[in-house]
Design goal:
Radius of gyration: 21 Å
Order of helices and strands: HHHHHHHHHHHHHHHHHHHHHH
Shape: globular
Strand content: under 5%
Helix content: 55-70%
C-alpha cells in the first residue's frame, strides 16, 4: 500500500467518524432546543422496541433527539469497523456508511444491525479470510433490519408487540445471522445482473433473501404477513433543512480545505468529476478525498433542493420533511463517493417528475410528493450510470421506468427489505440496458463517429 492510499484511507475514516459525531451533536442540540420532544434516550428506547417494517418514521416512533442519537450510534459503530486492522476503505465504504446511517432514521437501529454483522463475520471465518475484508458488505447486509426487529418483538403475530423474549432473540440471531452469512456471495453475483448500471447493487441479496425469509417464516408456516402501512410523523422542515444544510456545507468546506492542504485549488478536479459517467467509479481513487467531500456536499444540497422543489410544485413547500425524508437524503447522497453527482442524476429526477405528472393526470394515485415516490426517487438515482454512458434521454427513460415499478415491489418481501428501491433499479437496469446495448450507441461511440465524419 502506498503512502498516498494510506493517507486517503485515514482521511475517509476520520471523515466518517466526524459525521457520526455530527449526529450526536444534533441529538444534544435538538434535545435542548426542543424540550417538548422529550429525552433522546427515551426516544431511542421507543425506537428499539418498535417494529420497523416499511415505512416507519423514527421521528414519530421515538422522537427527534432519539432519532439523531440512533443515527449517531449506528454511524459510530460502522465508522469503528473501518478502523479494524487490514480494512481497505474506499468510495464504496463511504457509500455503505451513508446508506446504513440514512436508514437509521426509519428502519435500522443500534440493536437490529448486529445479527447481520455476525453472519458476515461467520462467512469470513468459514472462508478463512479476515473480517476486515468484508466491512463494506457487513454494512450493506443490513437491508433486512426490519425483519430482525419483527422477529425480536412480535413474530409470529401481526399486531401486538410482545416485547423482547428469549425466543425472539434466538430467532433474530439465527435467521438474520444466516441472511448475513449468505449476503456476500449473492452481492458478488449482483453485478452480473445489472453490469454496473445499478449503484445499489446490494439490493439483489437484500430483496431476494427477504422474499425467501417471508416465504418460509410466514407463507409456508401458515402465518399472516403484517400489513404494509406507513407510519409518518409531522413535517419538521426546520429540523431537516437546518441539519442538512449545515452538514453538507461543512462537507464542502472540509473538501476545499483538504484540497488546499494538498497544494491544489479548492475545487480542484470537480469539473472533471461532474463529467464522469459514474459507471463502476470510485471518486476517492480518481479525484481524491477532498473533491469527493465537495461532491457529497454539493450533491446533498442538490437533493434537498429537489425535494423542496417537488413540494413547491405540489403547493406544499413545508410538508413531507419528516424523519424518512431526512433519511432518504443521506441514503441518496451515499453514492456521491462512487458514481452519483448532479450531472448524471438530474435526468433520472426529471423522468420521475414527468412520469408522475402524467400518471396523476390519468388518475394515478401517487403524486410526485407522495412519500413512496420520494423514497423511490432516492434509489432510482442509482441508475445514473445509464445517463453517464448513454446520455440524458436514457436517464430520463430509466427514471420513468423506476416510477412505474417501485410501488409494486414491497409485497414480495413483506415490506421487510429497506433496499426495495435499489432492487427496482436493478430490474430496470436488467430490462433497459440490454436494449440500449443492442439498439443504441454510447456517448463515446457517438462522439468517435462524429470525429470520423
Amino acid at each position: 500500500m502506498t503512502r498516498t492510499s494510506r493517507d486517503g484511507g485515514q482521511q475517509i475514516r476520520l471523515f466518517l467518524l466526524s459525521c457520526a459525531i455530527a449526529f450526536f451533536g444534533a441529538a444534544l442540540i435538538t434535545g435542548l432546543v426542543l424540550p417538548e420532544e422529550g429525552s433522546a434516550f427515551a426516544g431511542l428506547q421507543q425506537i428499539l422496541l418498535s417494529p420497523a417494517q416499511l415505512t416507519k418514521d423514527y421521528f414519530l416512533l421515538g422522537n427527534i433527539p432519539g432519532t439523531f442519537l440512533n443515527m449517531g450510534l449506528v454511524g459510530a459503530v460502522c465508522a469503528g469497523l473501518t478502523f479494524l486492522p487490514g480494512t481497505t476503505v474506499k468510495g464504496s465504504t463511504i457509500a455503505a456508511w451513508f446508506l446504513t446511517v440514512g436508514f437509521s432514521s426509519w428502519g435500522i437501529n443500534i440493536v437490529n444491525i448486529w445479527p447481520f454483522f455476525l453472519g458476515v463475520f461467520l462467512q469470513a471465518a468459514v472462508r478463512r479470510k479476515p473480517f476486515a475484508e468484508f466491512v463494506d458488505l457487513a454494512m450493506f447486509a443490513t437491508a433486512l433490519c426490519p425483519l430482525a426487529s419483527e422477529l425480536l418483538l412480535r413474530y409470529p403475530g401481526t399486531e401486538e408487540v410482545t416485547g423482547v423474549t428469549a425466543t425472539g432473540v434466538v430467532l433474530m440471531v439465527v435467521v438474520c445471522g444466516l441472511i448475513g452469512f449468505l449476503t456476500p456471495a449473492l452481492a458478488a453475483h449482483s453485478p452480473n445482473v445489472h453490469k454496473g448500471y445499478d449503484l445499489y447493487s446490494a439490493a439483489f441479496p437484500g430483496v431476494l433473501l427477504g422474499l425467501f425469509a417471508v416465504a418460509v417464516l410466514y407463507k409456508t408456516l401458515g402465518n399472516d404477513v403484517p400489513a404494509i402501512a406507513a407510519s409518518l410523523g409531522d413535517s419538521r422542515p426546520e429540523v431537516v433543512w437546518t441539519f442538512c444544510v449545515i452538514f453538507f456545507l461543512l462537507c464542502i468546506a472540509a473538501g476545499c480545505k483538504t484540497n488546499v492542504r494538498a497544494g491544489k485549488g479548492a475545487f480542484h478536479g470537480y469539473k472533471e468529476l461532474l463529467r464522469d459517467s459514474g459507471h463502476k467509479a470510485d471518486f476517492t481513487a480518481k479525484y481524491g478525498m477532498g473533491t469527493t467531500m465537495i461532491n457529497l456536499g454539493v450533491y446533498g444540497l442538490f437533493i434537498l433542493c429537489y425535494y423542496i422543489l417537488v413540494n413547491l410544485l405540489q403547493g406544499s413547500p413545508l410538508t413531507g420533511f419528516n424523519g424518512v425524508t431526512m433519511g432518504i437524503v443521506f441514503c441518496m447522497v451515499c453514492f456521491g463517493s462512487a458514481g452519483s453527482h448532479p450531472g448524471n442524476v438530474w435526468p433520472v429526477m426529471v423522468g420521475y417528475m414527468l412520469t408522475s405528472t402524467v400518471a396523476v393526470l390519468m388518475g394515478g394515485p401517487f403524486p410526485m410528493n407522495a412519500q413512496a415516490i420520494m423514497v423511490g426517487m432516492c434509489y432510482a438515482s442509482g441508475l445514473c450510470p445509464i445517463t453517464g454512458i448513454y446520455g440524458w434521454w436514457a436517464g430520463l427513460l430509466a427514471g420513468a421506468m423506476h416510477y412505474c415499478l417501485v410501488t409494486s415491489i414491497p409485497p414480495i418481501h413483506g415490506g421487510f427489505s429497506l433496499y426495495n428501491g435499489g432492487f427496482t433499479a436493478l430490474l430496470v437496469a436488467a430490462i433497459l440496458v440490454p436494449q440500449l446495448e443492442t439498439f443504441c450507441k454510447t456517448k463515446e461511440e457517438r462522439k468517435a463517429k462524429a470525429v470520423r465524419n
